[in-house]
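assembly run, all chains below
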Amino acid sequence: MIEENPVSLHDAPSRPMNMIEAINDALDIMMARDPDVVIMGEDVGYFGGVFRATAGLQKKFGKNRVFDTPINECGIIGAAVGMAAYGLRPVPEIQFADYIYPGLDQLVSEAARLRYRSAGEFVAPITVRSPFGGGIFGGQTHSQSPEALFTHVAGLKTVIPATPHDAKGLLIAAIEDNDPVIFFEPKRIYNGPFDGYYDRPSRPWKGLPGSQVPEGYYKVPLGKARVVREGAALTVVTYGTMVHVAEAVLAEKGVDAEIIDLRSLVPLDIDTVEKSVEKTGKCLVIHEATRTSGFGAELVTLVQERCFYHLEAPVERVTGFDTPYPHSLEWAYFPGPVRIGEAVDRLMKD
Amino acid sequence: MAEGPVRTGKLRGNLPQLELYVPEPRYRPGDTVDYTHLEIPEPGLLARPDEACEASETWPLTLDMIRVLGDDDRAVGPWNPGLDPETLRRMLATMALTRAFDDRMYRGQRQGKTSFYMKSTGEEAISIACAHALAADDMVFPSYRQQGVLIARGYPLVEMVNQIYSNRADPLKGRQLPIMYSAKDYGFFSISGNLATQFPQAVGWAMASAIKGDTRIATSFVGEGSSAEGDFHAAMTFAAVYNAPVVLNVVNNQWAISSFSGFAGAERTTFAARAAGYGIAGLRVDGNDILAVYAAMEWAANRARAGKGPTLIEHFTYRAEGHSTSDDPSAYRSAREAEDWPLGDPIMRLKKHLVALGEWSEEQHEAMDRDLAEQVKAATKEAEKNGILGHGLHHPFHTMFEDVFEELPWHLQEQAEQAIRERQTKWPEWKE
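ok done. output:
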């Protein structure tokens, strides 16, 4: 593989993109750079994917490297493991994260364990892309956030971008990574960031922070969080869509919060979280996924274990409820401004 | 016109209650066994279609049974691969070596040298024929009873024993249950304990070979029991859709631990017949007849390599011993089943064939067995120098945390430090 270090991303020519365009650009670049990268999944070929993430790639790189698959997630991931054993670097798409479960055994028992069980003889450098999360009236089977299932598995990395800039850089890093990566794309923010106020008009990415995407090859390293906003009063730890919701709510409340976008859950940038909580003394964890045994439980525990003597208030978490994602009551379920606001008020009352 | 919606549906009337059918094997412990219900054709009767034929032309072969070696110990018919005596003797010796190895490792487990073992007794022909019919660098995605492939490909016995003993020379660093080998240089994929997962992986590997314009093909094995897994369907569908250069094998040894083949659907049709629904070529073969197995494998391999697509092969055989050292088959099946198995023993059948050809003798066979037993014993002794399970000679402690990821992340680093602290308390005398 060619090693190129972009001298400075700030100097690189860039253009505004939405998250789909950024993902498509990352795939395009990696397909061109590495002949071992192949893309497969339901509807990803000629049609270019139901969210258009692979649009144009089959035409450009041929059916041998970008192809449709049967509707069989076990087969998609299982075949990807076999392709990886051959020496390819597959990038399968699972059309919705909600559909990933038939492929779970192949991910958990096979891809994740292969390096360990073969003592490094075989590896599974697979990047499984999958749109996840709600806020699009997808009902219970097109809205789930199952990231905690994957962070619980030894041997899997879990990556979740929150901006077009990061989506491209993280996806390139994920594809080049020699371990299996679950790359969850928050589909609510494919076309524009979402502030959680569902009754306000949605905004496109263009012109907004994170939408200016450098051209060409660059990586955003896995395991390095992004401080979205520096602050002194409260640390907010979150990822994906909720980064933008948190930003809007905290701005509305006028709280000088430090907002951390984790970008990858495994590996986790615990240093950035620790330093921030030590500074602010207060911590709020936010995710859209269900509450019990969610990744928030892990984060709250880590903060408690590592920052206890700096804490001035109990660590709070704001999450989705422990129900399936309801269709008509989507905005009652979604951990939006009211739920976050309550938690912020509790944390800031002294 | 009725007003409003009308509920539609037939009146059922007075009908008998439905009953659930739960399959039951014919024989249980203590029963005498009668195999007259098994349809075992005379050898040599089935036609051998062209390797490039339409998949549907193989339909009769999925319901019948390809056999080459007859009761008169002669090889007959169009499926006779016509192997030279030297190759036959090598196959015989490799089957016998596999059995000798199994016997010794079984005893080793009983002597407490390891935790677990799985024999392939009675099924040796399938693995050894596979290794002979394929190219040395064709990729095998095995289940847990294809040790014969490794042995036939010349993988060192001592490495196998090191793995089984989980000792300090175990190539898999003591991480895997015994017999879950991995041998990339021998075209042998890492064995999973989860069943049938290797089937779609083999198809993916074969697809990759086709994507790259390679000439290598893949093959994989599942038991008839785990052919019930969804992975089987995934593999068959992908293999059919992409015309993948892969040979998919179902080793029908009649038993999945204590569940007979009826729990995988054997009472309804053959396992080979499943190929037809996918539009894949299918063959059903006498799995205890190494010449028939070789011929079927060769047919399927040639077909795959010529770009004519995948083949499903059912190997009809019998698991002559327990599922594993943790199993007691006398608790659920008649001991007469193995003794009376009408397809005989694969080693005996090839031996008698060679004797009938005038290419082998009882004396040679006995001498070979003694020699193989010595060979296994020597490998075992050599491996024991590297330790046996639970006696302190294993890979260094820190290897426990390696290879989870390519690089050690902070949380595993912290846990490794914890493990080393615990070690100082638990085993203060520890040296490595």
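Chain A touches chain B through 47 residues (CB under 8 Å).

Chain A has two domains: 14-214, 226-348.

not gonna interpret more than that til we talk
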